[in-house]
Amino acid sequence: MELVIDTSALIAVIANEPEKPALVEQTTGAVLLAPSSVHWEIGNAFSAMLKRDRITLAQAQSALAIYQKIPIRFLDVELQQALTLSAELGIYAYDAYLIAAAQSQRCALLALDRGLIHAARQAGISVVEVGS
Questions:
Q1: Coil, helix or strand at residue 83
Q2: Secondary structure (H, E, C), 58-74
């Protein structure tokens, strides 16, 4: 089974948030896919934590090492498709990239972000939800 995974789910696993066991269970045996933008979103999330003094540089580097061990196949998405989704669903491009990736791969999306989940469902994408 292939799943497009959102940054929120990846951060939850990396940061040992309460959803981690359920996320690991849902993804065991799955091929994880993500638009290339997720890679940069991870870096942005860590930099935001650094800026807010929520983590140290050493902690960010440790988290990055964990992230780099997660096998993810990165996908290119069509910008035209993403912009169309953005306009139709009233969402930011980063969320549209995830939905476009799920559409192009004809697979479900795994996310924790409620707004993204709602938009994905509006676009006809199956969503794998994980609660804590």
A1: helix
A2: HHHHHHHHHHHHCCEEE
